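User: Structure with zinc ion, tokens only please.
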Amino acid sequence: MLTMDDFVNEDDPILRQVAVEVPLPASNEDKKLLDSLMEYVQNSQKPDISALYGLRAGIGLAAPQVNVSKRMIAVHLKEKDGQLYSYALFNPKLISHSVEKAYLTSGEGCLSVNRPVSGYVPRYARITVVGTDLEGTSVQLRLKGIAAICFQHEIDHLNGIMFYDHINPEDPYAIPENSIALER
Ligand code: ZN
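Assistant:
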């Protein structure tokens, strides 16, 4: 299983690379890695296991964060209405998005960034993502709320983009234009 020891440092150049597409059908090695990304995110949300292994809690993880520059992400999060979003995807792609933006009032965090970073991160309020799951099935997801923010954060990792790249350097708490505020 993955632990924090498998994570690269924030300044590792792999976090700035554009990750390569995973050839499909996925190899057993690639499936194993994607499965372990999901396992990490799920374990990190279980108090007993996360305490035992010293896991930082997260709701999403991308392969470059554990030193593999391939297009794979895992997201596991429960929205406030109780709906669970749990997806492990090869080659996730944002195919459309709203004009309206959204941002988390608490800002964003990242398992690759061991320091607080202040500021609002403008994201699209609604997105459509396509990808392929561990069973090899094509999926298309329409997302809003925290789930939409999380998928954009993770897909950014596949393109070498960190969440703080989006923060307005002159005014980190400037309200993004045409945006809705989301509370976690
Ligand atoms: Zn991150």
